[in-house]
Design a protein that fits this description.
With about 40 residues, the protein is α+β, with helices and mostly antiparallel strands. The protein is built from one helix and two strands. The protein has one domain. A two-stranded parallel ribbon has the order 1-2. The radius of gyration is 10 Å and the shape is elongated. About 10% of the residues are buried.
Length: about 40
Amino acid sequence: MTKRFDEKIVIITGAGSGLGQAAALKLAKEGAKLSFSRFE
């Protein structure tokens, strides 16, 4: 089974909580390479 985001790079801001965190987790499971940040 091929992952949808295999070998793709994704940048997410606000990955520390909420929707950003949910998106980061989902995309990582789909094979994405992540670059993310968390601002307080």
